[in-house]
Amino acid sequence: MAFNYHLASFLRYLWYYKLMKKLVLIDGNAVIHRAYHSIPKNFTNRKGEKTNALYGFAMTLVKVLEDLKPEYLATSFDLAGPTFRHKEYKEYKATRVKADQDLYDQIPLIKEMVKNIGIPIYEKEEYEADDVLGTITTKMEKEKIQTFVVSGDKDIFQLIGANVKVYNLRKGLSQSAIVDKEYVEKEYNLQPEDFIDLKALAGDSSDNIPGVPGIGQVTATKLLQKFDTLENLYEAIEKETGSKLDDFKPRIINLLKEHKEQAFLSQKLATICKKVPIDFSLEDCLFGEYDKDKLKEVFEELGFVSLLRRFGRGKTEEIKNIRTKEQGKNDKNDQLKLL
């Protein structure tokens, strides 16, 4: 019996990881910000333009292609302007410090590179990239497509499901990990969907989601482990029944009662929208037949020599002439920093 069980498990693994087609979705803004703050700002191209975020994005793309080998690939970026969340709560993200202009200057270059390589970009006004990615993963739920979302943000964990995993970017690219339901359960003792209610209770200073004042991550986690959902928690509080409430100090219960409306507002702000009106085509995301010569041309133009080598495009002597001494230093420093 044990042999049959392990054989069945192995066959399921083989089918899921080897036979299913893979769609990789890149959270563009999350990758850009991570790259910008990971690579020295003196990283420049031959024209003297700063390209640290651009190069970091390209490095991440190469790493993802090496690790996941997807048949389909797409990305999404935030657009300028308010979103539907700002209509719900005008202070949403109001405390964020404006990024350096150098970062904003590189975003059009990153988008141009992505398009030149042949990767479609999906965006929608009044929605964030997370919402677009959430909508696409939902569309793919009924398809036999493995979907991986590339991001460094834990917010995206709420999208994890049977066919959806997160390629979680860490401080070093070599430390990036694939996060699935089992990983979340083991590492956080929570379910993927709990990350919504975790923000509803503890808030999020980076997005200025208020949460319940006085309740931090530790207490919020304990509450969710006891009650599973925000709705269950408040139902128990309103009925004032159940021994589970006795595990928490009266101060905590009073804070929850006082800020109930704020908790549910925060839940709404933290929930990724999965119904963004976009025209998504899986066929347009086919990456297996991308233009290799175009990829080489794009990286040569940018001076990304080390990436050309990792892609195996062209002989070393053919690309030596586009590498300056400064670029060589940048390549070396970058690899030490990220790899």
What does this structure look like?
Strands 2-1-3-4-5 form a 5-stranded mixed beta sheet. It is elongated. It is built from 16 helices and 5 strands. α8 crosses α9. It has helices at residues 2-19, 28-38, 52-68, 84-88, 101-117, 129-140, 181-188, 194-202, 217-227, 230-239, 250-258, 260-270, 292-302, 305-311, 316-319, 325-338; strands at residues 21-27, 72-76, 145-151, 164-168, 177-179. The chain has 339 residues and is α/β, with parallel strands linked by helices.
Short précis:
This protein is α/β, with parallel strands linked by helices and about 350 residues long.
Q: Could you tell me the strand content as a percent range?
A: 5-15%
* Total of domains: 2
Number of helices: 16
- The order of strands across the largest sheet is 2-1-3-4-5
Task: Return the structural class.
Answer: alpha/beta
The total beta strand count reads 5
* Top CATH class of the largest domain: Alpha Beta
Low-confidence stretches: 312-339
Work out the radius of gyration: 22 Å
CATH topology of the largest domain: Rossmann fold
Q: CATH superfamily name of the largest domain?
A: 5'-nuclease
Distance between the termini: 44 Å
How would you classify the quaternary structure?
single chain
**Share in helix:** 40-55%
- Shape category: elongated
What characteristics describe this protein?
single chain, 339 residues, alpha/beta, Rossmann fold, DNA polymerase, domain 1, 5 strands, 8% strand, elongated
Secondary structure layout:
Layout: H1 2-19, E1 21-27, H2 28-38, H3 52-68, E2 72-76, H4 84-88, H5 101-117, H6 129-140, E3 145-151, E4 164-168, E5 177-179, H7 181-188, H8 194-202, H9 217-227, H10 230-239, H11 250-258, H12 260-270, H13 292-302, H14 305-311, H15 316-319, H16 325-338
Parallel strand pairs: 1-2, 1-3, 3-4
Antiparallel strand pairs: 4-5
Helix pairs in contact: 2-3, 3-5, 8-9, 8-12
